[in-house]
Protein backbone atom coordinates (compact mmCIF):
# COMPACT_ATOMS: atom_id res chain seq x y z
CA UNK A 1 0.00 0.00 0.00
CA UNK A 2 1.43 3.35 -1.02
CA UNK A 3 1.43 5.58 2.06
CA UNK A 4 3.04 8.85 3.11
CA UNK A 5 6.02 6.95 4.47
CA UNK A 6 6.74 5.61 0.95
CA UNK A 7 7.92 9.11 -0.08
CA UNK A 8 10.44 11.73 0.84
CA UNK A 9 8.62 15.01 0.27
CA UNK A 10 11.72 17.19 0.52
CA UNK A 11 11.51 19.79 -2.27
CA UNK A 12 8.29 18.24 -3.59
CA UNK A 13 4.95 19.92 -4.13
CA UNK A 14 2.27 17.61 -2.71
CA UNK A 15 -1.16 18.03 -4.25
CA UNK A 16 -3.43 16.86 -1.43
CA UNK A 17 -7.15 16.07 -1.80
CA UNK A 18 -8.55 16.92 1.62
CA UNK A 19 -12.13 16.99 2.86
CA UNK A 20 -12.66 20.57 4.00
CA UNK A 21 -16.40 20.36 3.44
CA UNK A 22 -17.00 21.99 6.82
CA UNK A 23 -20.18 23.60 8.16
CA UNK A 24 -20.28 27.43 8.06
CA UNK A 25 -22.68 29.70 9.98
CA UNK A 26 -24.46 32.75 8.56
CA UNK A 27 -21.33 34.83 9.33
CA UNK A 28 -19.41 32.33 7.15
CA UNK A 29 -17.42 31.10 10.14
CA UNK A 30 -16.44 27.45 10.51
CA UNK A 31 -18.62 25.86 13.22
CA UNK A 32 -16.99 22.41 13.31
CA UNK A 33 -13.27 22.14 12.60
CA UNK A 34 -12.92 18.37 12.97
CA UNK A 35 -12.34 17.74 9.27
CA UNK A 36 -9.54 20.32 9.14
CA UNK A 37 -7.98 18.83 12.25
CA UNK A 38 -8.28 15.35 10.74
CA UNK A 39 -6.21 16.44 7.71
CA UNK A 40 -3.55 18.20 9.80
CA UNK A 41 -1.19 15.25 10.47
CA UNK A 42 -0.74 14.56 6.74
CA UNK A 43 -0.12 18.21 5.89
CA UNK A 44 2.32 18.74 8.76
CA UNK A 45 4.21 15.52 7.91
CA UNK A 46 4.80 16.81 4.36
CA UNK A 47 5.80 20.31 5.48
CA UNK A 48 8.19 18.99 8.13
CA UNK A 49 9.95 16.90 5.49
CA UNK A 50 10.59 20.06 3.48
CA UNK A 51 7.74 19.69 1.04
CA UNK A 52 5.01 22.18 0.22
CA UNK A 53 1.27 21.48 0.30
CA UNK A 54 -1.37 22.39 -2.26
CA UNK A 55 -4.75 21.70 -0.69
CA UNK A 56 -7.81 20.99 -2.81
CA UNK A 57 -11.34 20.35 -1.58
CA UNK A 58 -14.98 20.93 -2.28
CA UNK A 59 -17.32 22.91 -0.05
CA UNK A 60 -21.05 22.30 -0.28
CA UNK A 61 -22.78 21.69 -3.57
CA UNK A 62 -22.38 24.71 -5.83
CA UNK A 63 -23.06 22.44 -8.85
CA UNK A 64 -20.68 24.31 -11.13
CA UNK A 65 -21.88 27.78 -10.08
CA UNK A 66 -19.64 30.40 -8.44
CA UNK A 67 -21.70 30.68 -5.26
CA UNK A 68 -19.75 33.22 -3.12
CA UNK A 69 -20.93 31.76 0.19
CA UNK A 70 -19.28 28.46 -0.76
CA UNK A 71 -15.83 29.93 -1.40
CA UNK A 72 -13.00 28.16 0.42
CA UNK A 73 -11.47 31.60 1.11
CA UNK A 74 -13.83 31.74 4.11
CA UNK A 75 -11.96 28.92 5.78
CA UNK A 76 -8.37 29.89 4.89
CA UNK A 77 -7.74 31.69 8.22
CA UNK A 78 -9.12 28.77 10.20
CA UNK A 79 -6.91 26.33 8.29
CA UNK A 80 -3.89 28.55 9.01
CA UNK A 81 -4.80 28.74 12.70
CA UNK A 82 -5.17 24.95 13.01
CA UNK A 83 -2.01 24.15 11.06
CA UNK A 84 -0.03 26.93 12.73
CA UNK A 85 1.30 27.88 9.28
CA UNK A 86 0.38 30.79 6.95
CA UNK A 87 -2.01 29.73 4.17
CA UNK A 88 -2.00 31.37 0.73
CA UNK A 89 -5.26 31.26 -1.20
CA UNK A 90 -5.71 30.73 -4.94
CA UNK A 91 -9.04 32.19 -6.20
CA UNK A 92 -9.15 29.48 -8.86
CA UNK A 93 -8.29 25.81 -8.61
CA UNK A 94 -7.06 25.41 -12.22
CA UNK A 95 -5.59 27.69 -14.91
CA UNK A 96 -2.75 30.24 -14.95
CA UNK A 97 -3.51 31.77 -11.54
CA UNK A 98 -3.48 28.40 -9.74
CA UNK A 99 -0.41 27.30 -11.70
CA UNK A 100 1.49 30.49 -10.81
CA UNK A 101 0.50 30.09 -7.15
CA UNK A 102 1.68 26.49 -7.08
CA UNK A 103 4.94 27.29 -8.93
CA UNK A 104 5.80 30.04 -6.44
CA UNK A 105 5.39 27.78 -3.39
CA UNK A 106 8.53 27.33 -1.30
CA UNK A 107 9.21 24.32 0.93
CA UNK A 108 7.12 24.54 4.10
CA UNK A 109 4.43 26.69 2.47
CA UNK A 110 0.72 25.94 1.99
CA UNK A 111 -1.62 26.95 -0.84
CA UNK A 112 -5.38 26.44 -0.55
CA UNK A 113 -7.23 26.20 -3.87
CA UNK A 114 -10.74 27.52 -4.51
CA UNK A 115 -13.75 25.18 -4.34
CA UNK A 116 -13.32 22.32 -6.83
CA UNK A 117 -17.08 22.10 -7.35
CA UNK A 118 -17.22 25.61 -8.85
CA UNK A 119 -16.43 23.49 -11.92
CA UNK A 120 -19.07 20.96 -12.87
CA UNK A 121 -16.23 18.93 -14.41
CA UNK A 122 -15.15 17.92 -10.89
CA UNK A 123 -18.15 15.72 -10.09
CA UNK A 124 -18.40 14.62 -13.74
CA UNK A 125 -14.91 13.12 -13.39
CA UNK A 126 -13.77 15.11 -16.42
CA UNK A 127 -10.36 14.01 -17.74
CA UNK A 128 -9.29 17.45 -19.01
CA UNK A 129 -10.14 19.09 -15.70
CA UNK A 130 -8.26 16.33 -13.84
CA UNK A 131 -5.24 16.93 -16.10
CA UNK A 132 -5.34 20.68 -15.30
CA UNK A 133 -5.36 19.95 -11.58
CA UNK A 134 -2.56 17.39 -11.98
CA UNK A 135 -0.23 20.09 -13.39
CA UNK A 136 -0.05 21.71 -9.96
CA UNK A 137 1.86 19.08 -7.99
CA UNK A 138 4.63 16.47 -8.09
CA UNK A 139 2.98 13.91 -5.80
CA UNK A 140 -0.75 13.26 -5.41
CA UNK A 141 -1.97 12.48 -1.90
CA UNK A 142 -5.56 11.45 -1.24
CA UNK A 143 -6.61 12.07 2.35
CA UNK A 144 -10.35 12.57 1.82
CA UNK A 145 -12.15 9.43 2.96
CA UNK A 146 -15.52 11.25 2.93
CA UNK A 147 -15.38 11.49 -0.87
CA UNK A 148 -13.43 8.28 -1.59
CA UNK A 149 -16.63 6.58 -2.81
CA UNK A 150 -16.96 9.16 -5.60
CA UNK A 151 -15.20 8.82 -8.96
CA UNK A 152 -14.65 12.56 -9.23
CA UNK A 153 -11.80 14.34 -11.02
CA UNK A 154 -9.87 15.20 -7.84
CA UNK A 155 -10.62 11.99 -5.93
CA UNK A 156 -9.95 9.33 -8.55
CA UNK A 157 -9.46 10.41 -12.19
CA UNK A 158 -6.45 12.61 -11.37
CA UNK A 159 -4.45 9.66 -10.00
CA UNK A 160 -3.64 8.38 -13.50
CA UNK A 161 -1.30 11.40 -13.91
CA UNK A 162 0.84 10.36 -10.95
CA UNK A 163 2.10 6.86 -11.74
CA UNK A 164 4.50 5.94 -8.95
CA UNK A 165 3.89 9.32 -7.35
CA UNK A 166 0.63 8.87 -5.47
CA UNK A 167 -0.27 7.72 -2.02
CA UNK A 168 -2.85 7.67 0.74
CA UNK A 169 -2.69 10.35 3.43
CA UNK A 170 -2.56 9.34 7.08
CA UNK A 171 -6.31 9.71 7.59
CA UNK A 172 -7.26 7.55 4.62
CA UNK A 173 -4.65 4.99 5.68
CA UNK A 174 -6.23 4.82 9.15
CA UNK A 175 -9.72 4.32 7.67
CA UNK A 176 -8.52 1.51 5.42
CA UNK A 177 -6.69 -0.20 8.30
CA UNK A 178 -9.73 0.09 10.59
CA UNK A 179 -12.00 -1.57 8.02
CA UNK A 180 -9.40 -4.28 7.36
CA UNK A 181 -9.05 -4.93 11.08
CA UNK A 182 -12.76 -5.68 11.29
CA UNK A 183 -13.31 -7.51 8.01
CA UNK A 184 -9.97 -9.26 7.45
CA UNK A 185 -7.67 -9.47 10.43
CA UNK A 186 -9.87 -8.88 13.45
CA UNK A 187 -9.17 -10.93 16.57
CA UNK A 188 -12.10 -13.27 17.28
CA UNK A 189 -14.84 -13.21 18.37
CA UNK A 190 -15.86 -10.49 15.92
CA UNK A 191 -19.24 -8.85 16.57
CA UNK A 192 -21.23 -6.54 14.34
CA UNK A 193 -23.90 -4.37 15.93
CA UNK A 194 -26.30 -3.36 13.19
CA UNK A 195 -29.02 -0.83 13.92
CA UNK A 196 -30.78 1.85 11.96
CA UNK A 197 -34.22 2.06 10.50
CA UNK A 198 -34.51 -0.44 7.67
CA UNK A 199 -33.29 -3.89 6.70
CA UNK A 200 -33.35 -2.88 3.04
CA UNK A 201 -30.59 -0.28 3.52
CA UNK A 202 -28.33 -2.69 5.45
CA UNK A 203 -28.85 -5.98 3.62
CA UNK A 204 -25.78 -5.76 1.40
CA UNK A 205 -23.60 -4.90 4.38
CA UNK A 206 -24.93 -7.79 6.46
CA UNK A 207 -24.42 -10.27 3.62
CA UNK A 208 -20.90 -9.00 2.98
CA UNK A 209 -19.74 -9.14 6.60
CA UNK A 210 -21.23 -12.55 7.50
CA UNK A 211 -18.05 -14.48 6.56
CA UNK A 212 -15.98 -12.17 8.79
CA UNK A 213 -18.06 -12.16 11.96
CA UNK A 214 -19.06 -14.52 14.79
CA UNK A 215 -21.97 -12.55 16.28
CA UNK A 216 -24.57 -10.33 14.66
CA UNK A 217 -26.51 -8.04 16.98
CA UNK A 218 -29.61 -6.64 15.32
CA UNK A 219 -31.29 -3.56 16.78
CA UNK A 220 -33.23 -0.45 15.83
CA UNK A 221 -36.11 -0.31 13.41
CA UNK A 222 -34.71 -3.30 11.50
CA UNK A 223 -35.67 -5.53 14.41
CA UNK A 224 -39.38 -5.58 13.58
CA UNK A 225 -39.03 -6.94 10.08
CA UNK A 226 -37.13 -9.90 11.57
CA UNK A 227 -39.58 -10.36 14.46
CA UNK A 228 -42.57 -10.23 12.11
CA UNK A 229 -40.89 -12.71 9.74
CA UNK A 230 -40.45 -15.06 12.70
CA UNK A 231 -44.18 -14.87 13.45
CA UNK A 232 -44.21 -12.14 16.13
CA UNK A 233 -46.67 -9.28 16.62
CA UNK A 234 -45.03 -5.90 16.02
CA UNK A 235 -48.01 -3.52 16.43
CA UNK A 236 -47.33 -0.21 14.70
CA UNK A 237 -43.54 -0.65 14.65
CA UNK A 238 -41.64 0.18 11.49
CA UNK A 239 -41.70 -3.02 9.44
CA UNK A 240 -40.92 -3.75 5.80
CA UNK A 241 -43.60 -6.27 4.91
CA UNK A 242 -42.08 -6.91 1.49
CA UNK A 243 -38.76 -7.87 3.13
CA UNK A 244 -39.95 -10.69 5.40
CA UNK A 245 -38.49 -13.39 3.15
CA UNK A 246 -35.28 -11.44 2.91
CA UNK A 247 -35.07 -11.30 6.71
CA UNK A 248 -35.54 -15.07 6.91
CA UNK A 249 -32.91 -15.63 4.25
CA UNK A 250 -30.42 -13.51 6.22
CA UNK A 251 -31.06 -15.64 9.30
CA UNK A 252 -30.55 -18.78 7.20
CA UNK A 253 -27.32 -17.45 5.67
CA UNK A 254 -26.06 -16.48 9.13
CA UNK A 255 -26.76 -20.01 10.36
CA UNK A 256 -24.86 -21.53 7.46
CA UNK A 257 -21.94 -19.14 8.09
CA UNK A 258 -21.92 -20.13 11.77
CA UNK A 259 -22.86 -16.61 12.89
CA UNK A 260 -24.91 -16.30 16.06
CA UNK A 261 -27.72 -13.76 15.60
CA UNK A 262 -28.94 -11.77 18.60
CA UNK A 263 -32.33 -10.08 18.30
CA UNK A 264 -34.03 -7.93 20.95
CA UNK A 265 -36.16 -9.96 23.36
CA UNK A 266 -37.89 -6.89 24.82
CA UNK A 267 -38.41 -3.35 23.58
CA UNK A 268 -39.51 0.04 24.84
CA UNK A 269 -42.82 0.57 23.08
CA UNK A 270 -44.60 3.90 22.78
CA UNK A 271 -48.12 4.96 21.80
CA UNK A 272 -46.77 7.93 19.83
CA UNK A 273 -43.56 8.85 17.97
CA UNK A 274 -42.83 11.71 20.37
CA UNK A 275 -40.92 12.66 23.50
CA UNK A 276 -44.07 12.77 25.65
CA UNK A 277 -45.53 9.46 24.47
CA UNK A 278 -46.69 6.85 26.99
CA UNK A 279 -44.19 4.01 27.10
CA UNK A 280 -44.03 0.41 28.31
CA UNK A 281 -41.53 -2.43 28.10
CA UNK A 282 -43.01 -5.37 26.21
CA UNK A 283 -41.75 -8.60 24.66
CA UNK A 284 -40.37 -7.83 21.21
CA UNK A 285 -42.76 -10.36 19.64
CA UNK A 286 -45.90 -9.18 21.47
CA UNK A 287 -46.21 -5.48 20.81
CA UNK A 288 -49.83 -4.40 21.32
CA UNK A 289 -51.84 -2.83 18.49
CA UNK A 290 -51.39 0.94 18.48
CA UNK A 291 -47.92 0.72 20.06
CA UNK A 292 -44.54 0.80 18.34
CA UNK A 293 -41.10 -0.35 19.44
CA UNK A 294 -38.80 2.67 19.52
CA UNK A 295 -35.89 1.49 21.66
CA UNK A 296 -34.26 -1.69 22.96
CA UNK A 297 -35.59 -3.02 26.29
CA UNK A 298 -33.56 -3.64 29.49
CA UNK A 299 -33.20 -7.43 29.13
CA UNK A 300 -32.11 -6.97 25.51
CA UNK A 301 -29.46 -4.47 26.56
CA UNK A 302 -28.15 -6.91 29.19
CA UNK A 303 -27.95 -9.66 26.57
CA UNK A 304 -26.22 -7.35 24.10
CA UNK A 305 -23.79 -6.20 26.80
CA UNK A 306 -22.68 -9.78 27.43
CA UNK A 307 -22.08 -10.44 23.75
CA UNK A 308 -20.20 -7.16 23.34
CA UNK A 309 -18.02 -7.82 26.41
CA UNK A 310 -17.11 -11.27 25.10
CA UNK A 311 -15.92 -9.79 21.78
CA UNK A 312 -12.40 -8.87 20.74
CA UNK A 313 -13.40 -6.94 17.61
CA UNK A 314 -16.49 -4.75 17.26
CA UNK A 315 -18.18 -2.98 14.40
CA UNK A 316 -21.06 -0.67 15.26
CA UNK A 317 -23.30 0.69 12.54
CA UNK A 318 -26.63 2.30 13.32
CA UNK A 319 -28.51 3.29 16.49
CA UNK A 320 -30.63 0.70 18.31
CA UNK A 321 -33.44 3.17 18.94
CA UNK A 322 -34.75 6.57 17.92
CA UNK A 323 -31.82 8.23 19.70
CA UNK A 324 -32.74 11.70 18.43
CA UNK A 325 -35.67 11.68 20.89
CA UNK A 326 -34.44 11.54 24.49
CA UNK A 327 -37.17 9.14 25.61
CA UNK A 328 -35.80 6.52 23.18
CA UNK A 329 -32.07 7.24 23.47
CA UNK A 330 -31.16 4.98 26.41
CA UNK A 331 -30.63 1.87 24.27
CA UNK A 332 -28.12 3.57 22.00
CA UNK A 333 -26.33 5.14 25.02
CA UNK A 334 -26.20 1.73 26.69
CA UNK A 335 -24.63 0.15 23.58
CA UNK A 336 -22.11 3.02 23.65
CA UNK A 337 -21.26 2.22 27.28
CA UNK A 338 -20.88 -1.49 26.47
CA UNK A 339 -18.63 -0.77 23.48
CA UNK A 340 -16.60 1.62 25.66
CA UNK A 341 -16.18 -1.05 28.35
CA UNK A 342 -15.18 -3.72 25.82
CA UNK A 343 -12.67 -1.31 24.27
CA UNK A 344 -11.19 -0.60 27.71
CA UNK A 345 -10.88 -4.34 28.20
CA UNK A 346 -8.79 -4.57 25.02
CA UNK A 347 -11.24 -5.00 22.13
CA UNK A 348 -10.86 -3.07 18.87
CA UNK A 349 -14.00 -1.06 18.11
CA UNK A 350 -14.91 0.69 14.89
CA UNK A 351 -17.94 2.94 14.70
CA UNK A 352 -18.94 3.99 11.24
CA UNK A 353 -21.53 4.80 8.68
CA UNK A 354 -24.23 7.44 8.87
CA UNK A 355 -26.14 7.98 12.08
CA UNK A 356 -24.04 5.88 14.44
CA UNK A 357 -21.30 8.50 14.16
CA UNK A 358 -23.76 11.28 15.05
CA UNK A 359 -24.92 9.20 18.02
CA UNK A 360 -21.44 8.51 19.44
CA UNK A 361 -20.55 12.18 19.07
CA UNK A 362 -23.82 13.33 20.68
CA UNK A 363 -23.36 11.02 23.66
CA UNK A 364 -19.63 11.68 24.11
CA UNK A 365 -18.28 8.23 23.17
CA UNK A 366 -16.07 9.55 20.37
CA UNK A 367 -12.82 9.20 22.36
CA UNK A 368 -13.89 6.00 24.10
CA UNK A 369 -13.91 3.71 21.06
CA UNK A 370 -10.91 2.68 18.96
CA UNK A 371 -11.93 4.47 15.77
CA UNK A 372 -14.79 6.61 14.51
CA UNK A 373 -14.95 6.74 10.74
CA UNK A 374 -14.97 10.15 9.05
CA UNK A 375 -16.95 9.01 6.02
CA UNK A 376 -20.65 8.09 6.22
CA UNK A 377 -21.37 6.91 2.69
CA UNK A 378 -17.78 5.84 2.05
CA UNK A 379 -17.80 3.62 5.15
CA UNK A 380 -21.15 2.06 4.23
CA UNK A 381 -19.91 1.24 0.73
CA UNK A 382 -16.65 -0.20 2.13
CA UNK A 383 -18.66 -2.44 4.44
CA UNK A 384 -20.71 -3.53 1.45
CA UNK A 385 -17.46 -4.84 -0.01
CA UNK A 386 -17.08 -2.19 -2.70
CA UNK A 387 -13.53 -1.09 -3.51
CA UNK A 388 -13.99 2.68 -3.43
CA UNK A 389 -12.89 4.56 -6.59
CA UNK A 390 -10.65 6.89 -4.55
CA UNK A 391 -8.87 3.91 -3.03
CA UNK A 392 -8.71 1.88 -6.25
CA UNK A 393 -7.13 4.88 -8.01
CA UNK A 394 -4.19 4.90 -5.57
CA UNK A 395 -3.83 1.12 -5.51
CA UNK A 396 -3.91 0.84 -9.31
CA UNK A 397 -1.12 1.61 -11.81
P1 LIG B 1 -29.93 4.44 9.40
O1 LIG B 1 -29.70 5.75 8.69
O2 LIG B 1 -30.53 3.38 8.57
O3 LIG B 1 -28.71 3.99 10.19
O4 LIG B 1 -31.09 4.73 10.44
C1 LIG B 1 -30.92 5.64 11.50
C2 LIG B 1 -32.29 6.03 11.97
O5 LIG B 1 -32.96 4.90 12.45
C3 LIG B 1 -32.23 7.02 13.11
O6 LIG B 1 -32.73 8.25 12.66
C4 LIG B 1 -33.15 6.39 14.16
O7 LIG B 1 -34.05 7.32 14.70
C5 LIG B 1 -33.92 5.36 13.35
N1 LIG B 1 -34.42 4.28 14.20
C6 LIG B 1 -33.75 3.54 15.08
N2 LIG B 1 -34.59 2.69 15.72
C7 LIG B 1 -35.84 2.91 15.25
C8 LIG B 1 -37.12 2.36 15.52
N3 LIG B 1 -37.28 1.41 16.44
N4 LIG B 1 -38.18 2.82 14.84
C9 LIG B 1 -38.00 3.81 13.93
N5 LIG B 1 -36.81 4.35 13.61
C10 LIG B 1 -35.74 3.91 14.26
Q: What is the helix tally? A: 14
Name the ligand types: adenosine monophosphate
Order of helices and strands: EHEHEHEHHEEHEHEHHEEEEHEHEHEHH
CATH superfamily of the largest domain: Phosphoglycerate kinase, N-terminal domain
State the share of residues found in helices, binned by percent.
25-40%
What does this structure look like?
The protein has 397 residues and is α/β, with parallel strands linked by helices. The chain folds into two domains: 165 residues, Rossmann fold (3-Layer(aba) Sandwich); 209 residues, Rossmann fold (3-Layer(aba) Sandwich). 34% of the residues lie in helices and 16% in strands. The protein has 14 helices and 15 strands. It has a six-stranded parallel β-sheet, with helices on both faces. It has a six-stranded parallel β-sheet with strand order 9-8-7-13-14-15, with helices on both faces. Strands 11-10-12 form a three-stranded antiparallel β-sheet. The longest helix has 15 residues. It is elongated. The structure holds adenosine monophosphate.
Amino acid sequence: MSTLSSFNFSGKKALIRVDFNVPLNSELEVTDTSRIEAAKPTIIHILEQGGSAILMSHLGRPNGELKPELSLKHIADKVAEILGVAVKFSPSCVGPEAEAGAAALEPGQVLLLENLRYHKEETAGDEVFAASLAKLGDVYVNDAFGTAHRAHASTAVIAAHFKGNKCFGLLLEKEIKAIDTVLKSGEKPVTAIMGGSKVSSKITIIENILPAIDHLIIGGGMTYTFIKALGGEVGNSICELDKLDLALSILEKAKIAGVEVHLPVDVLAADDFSKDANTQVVASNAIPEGWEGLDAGPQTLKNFHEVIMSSKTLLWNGPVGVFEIETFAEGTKSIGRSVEAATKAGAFSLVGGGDSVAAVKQFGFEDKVSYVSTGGGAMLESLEGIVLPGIAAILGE
